[in-house]
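Sequence design from tokenized structure. All designs in this work follow the same two-part layout: the structure record, then the generated sequence. An example of the structure record is given first.
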């Protein structure tokens, strides 16, 4: 399979990773079982409420800091463990944590960023499962502003980012004008555990 990106990293998209029937079951279970939080972020000295709800789950010791927020992992529950096993086997990669975001409607979003935190290691593999409404994920090169790409993340799809992707590219799920229902996004990661 060819990468969606022309250079400097790899992104692969699998539109039917989970069946529509399974996606509905997982969406409902995760929506109801996850301990959702709406965190605050500080940008250039101003504090804002995150425009989405989120939660951090993982193995013991997989603390994760992003946007200057320390996230302590909550314990896996059955559906999360099932999805972790499925995506780990598919990617041939051992994930030990997951960041879950709930985009409640078209107004919820994720701004431009790279998943380049030190806890993720040099060239992290990040596997992102989408459940519910389709949303567009945009990519832009950090140094060559002409390089851009978009992909529609459909219900039951898997997006895998790997290689040097996080060094050279940013990605975002921006607000949209067209109304939409909720979307749950699970981004499986491996935190490098300290000795």
């Amino acid at each position: 399979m060819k990468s969606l990106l022309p250079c400097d990293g790899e992104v692969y998209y699998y539109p039917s990773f989970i069946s529509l029937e399974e996606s509905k079951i997982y969406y409902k279970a995760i929506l109801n079982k996850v301990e959702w939080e709406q965190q605050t972020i500080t940008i250039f000295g101003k504090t804002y409420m995150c425009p989405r709800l989120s939660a951090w789950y993982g193995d013991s010791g997989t603390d994760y800091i992003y946007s200057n927020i320390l996230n302590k992992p909550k314990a896996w529950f059955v559906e999360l463990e099932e999805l972790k096993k499925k995506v780990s086997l598919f990617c041939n990669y051992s994930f030990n944590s997951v960041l879950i975001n709930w985009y409640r409607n078209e107004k919820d979003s994720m701004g431009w960023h790279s998943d380049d935190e030190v806890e993720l290691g040099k060239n992290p593999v990040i596997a992102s499962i989408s459940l519910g409404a389709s949303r567009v994920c945009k990519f832009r090169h950090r140094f060559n502003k002409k390089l851009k790409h978009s992909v529609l993340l459909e219900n039951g799809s898997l997006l895998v980012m790997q290689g040097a992707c996080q060094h050279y590219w940013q990605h975002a799920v921006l607000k949209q004008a067209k109304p939409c229902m909720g979307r749950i996004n699970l981004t499986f990661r491996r935190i490098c555990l300290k000795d």
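The CA atoms of residues 63 and 72 lie 5 Å apart. We note this feature because it recurs in several other targets discussed in the main text.
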